[in-house]
Design a protein that fits this description.
The protein has three helices and no strands. By secondary structure, it is mainly α. Helix 1 packs parallel to helix 3 and helix 2 runs antiparallel to helix 3. The protein has one domain: Ribosomal protein S20 (Methane Monooxygenase Hydroxylase, Chain G, domain 1).
Amino acid sequence: MANSKSALKRVKVSERRRLRNRTYRSAARTMVRRAESVIATGDVDAAASAVGSAVSMLDRTAGKGVIHRNNAGRRKSRLMSKYNKMGA
């Protein structure tokens, strides 16, 4: 347990932020998973829409500081690579 008032406050604040960040992280993962499943089906129009929303969600998540911007960029790159292979 925390030994000082400031340490106790940090525990409370970090828990609040963890709970808030969890929703964004989960939503980003869900969007990416959805996009990958649509890519696997081979429907180009649906895949374009799903990939766009996943990329948007990753950007939003990185903008809020929930994930690092390089992490978001890496995930977007991997997703776009899969999408482009589907189109070829």
